[in-house]
Amino acid sequence: MSFAHQLRELQECSQGTVDSVVVLGASRTAVYEALRGSRLPSIKNLDRMVAAWGVGGSTERESWRQRRRAAEEDLAEESRRRGSVTAGRTPEEEDFAKRLRELWSRAGSPSTERVARHCDLSARTLDSYLDGRTIPTEERLDELFDGLSVVCGDEGGWLSVEREAFLGEVLFRARTARKEERERVRELASVLPAGQPIVEYTRGFIGFGAVPGVRLGQWFESRRTLSQATVHRPLQAGICGTARLGAESIVVAGGYQDDQDLGDVIIYTGQGGRSADAGRRIQDQELTRGNAALATSAATGGAVRVVRSADRGYRYDGLFRVEDYWWERSREGFAVWRFRLVALPPAEQAVAATQVSGSVAESTAEQGEAKDVRSLAMIQRVVRSSAVANYVKQIHDYTCQLCGTRLNLLTGAYAEAAHITPLGQPHNGPDDPANVLCLCANDHVLFDFGMLVINDDLTVISRFDSQIVGRLREVPGHAVDRRRLAEHRVRHGLPSDGSLR
Q1: Residue 286 CB contacts under 8 Å (≥ 6 apart), including other chains
Q2: Is the peptide bond before 422 cis (omega within 30 degrees of 0)?
Q3: Fewer CB within 10 Å of terminal CB in the chain, N or C?
């Protein structure tokens, strides 16, 4: 049922009228467009419709907002399938609009017309900022605060504090996220319209990345046909690859009760430790064979082909990146290696042509190292950026918090943002500055793989020789969450009840 149909049902059940919504401040044209389905209503107009035609209350408003978000996502997906994409609203933009509305409410909820009289902005422009339809520039946001200060005053100086926070961090994050979203959409639009040509797969391909001619979502009836297409070459093993080169492909078959398949994110349990006869785990897993191959892929950033098993056979689901790995106790009490794989965005799927060309004679995951690698791929490690990451890097002037190195390139300074607790399942780390460090490339790798750990007193310890190598530097405006540092130590096998010395 379409969102417009749901709105019409709400109106009919309440026997409400368009006039009852217009009285609350909505445009008559906007209401009719929403009922026809020609355009989604703004959040403010949707709230007015729910207030006029529903039973009222925050629970009902939130329910309708969720339906609107779902409808917006469906429209975006439909556009993507047609080969056209538009930039969606980012979480940072949503946060900006939410905080701006909260500030407006704290100021006494003055009418936008009244505030507009005291600044160089129109009431319509102010409404668009409060609705989250547009994000202001720094100069326009300053104008908004000027008008608000005249209308409500600034007793206690709270509005000045809010102005500084909005101009310094909140707006910066929203505008940076908007810029990155537009760049992502431009990149995506450049590869989607052509679609995926239906051609026969290339037999004999051995290497990494996408197999030429194999389409995303293509089905294979058996492990043998999957192997013949060289999408996943082993007939039994779930991981194809070597410790030296990394993993080529994996099969997600649901054989381990600890596995979690979340679509674009997979928490994959490594191989080994199970009894083929008993069908259960009987010993700890080791970081060897396929497990070591996946660990190598995590270190190099190489893309791994993912195949899912289903009743119809086996489906190729594209390229994933191994973003993290760790050991933990399984439900049966044995140590297992767990790998977090995240799907590459569609644009990266199309251009991720990293592969090993030439032949690899009789090499499988079970047979160990490749015997004849004629040429190796150049593998690029993608370092993703975000508004939070940019904020942390800028506040530290692109200087490593661990070693004090500042890398200067021809294009400007360079640093990397390292999440202490990784984002997404299963760690669910927050994407906020307290969970992010500004590091140089070397220390980022060492920190991610647990070779550098940080105690609660911010002393930095090298796991290589257990020596103190420095102290984490903090600056005003960026305090690091000590709980996340403790979680990082535990995740890499250190005691949870104290610091490492």
Answers
A1: 272
A2: no
A3: N
Residues of the chain with pLDDT under 70: 1, 76-88, 184-206, 254-258, 275-279, 281, 347-386, 410-411, 425, 495-501
Classify each residue of 282-314 as buried b or exposed e, where b means 16 or more C-beta atoms within 10 Å of its C-beta.
eeebeeebbbbbbbbbbebbbbbbbbebeeeeb
Separation of alpha carbons 59 and 305, rounded Å: 43
Number of structural domains, the chain? 4
Handedness of CA 103, 109, 113, 119 (dihedral sign): negative
**Within a domain: residue 357?**
no
Q: Give me the pLDDT at residue 193, please.
A: 37
Encoded tokens for 247: 């993993």
Host domain of residue 39: 3-75
Q: Are residues 234 and 129 in the same domain?
A: no
Average model confidence (pLDDT) across the chain: 80
If asked whether residues 264 and 307 sit together in one domain, one would say yes
The pLDDT, as a whole number, for residue 401 is 96
**Residue 2 vs residues 36, 85, 92, 258, 347: alpha-carbon distances, Å:** 10, 20, 27, 37, 29
- Of 204, 221, 222, the closest CA to residue 213 belongs to 204
Pair 224, 338 in one domain: yes
3-state class (DSSP) for residue 114: helix
CA distance 229 to 214: 8
Shared domain check, 239 and 338: yes
Give yes or no: residues 59 and 172 share one domain. Answer: no
Exposure b/e, 449-487, CB count within 10 A at least 16 = b: eeebbbbeeebbbebeeeeeebebbeeeebebbeebbbb
CB-count burial class (<10 Å; 0-12, 13-18, 19+) for 228: middle
Residues 437 and 480 in one domain: yes
Give the C-alpha distances (Å, rounded to integers) separating 61 from 26, 41, 124: 16, 13, 23
User: Nearest 5 degrees, angle CA 402-CA 408-CA 410?
Assistant: 155
φ/ψ of residue 183, rounded to 5: -65, -40
- Helix (H/G/I), strand (E/B), else coil: 433: helix
The C-alpha atoms of residue 192 and residue 213 are separated, in whole angstroms, by 16
Are residues 223 and 325 both part of a single domain?
yes
Runs of H (alpha helix) within 277-436: 289-300, 346-351, 387-395
Residue 311 maps to a domain: yes
Q: Quick check: is 131 in a domain?
A: yes
Same domain, 333 and 425: no
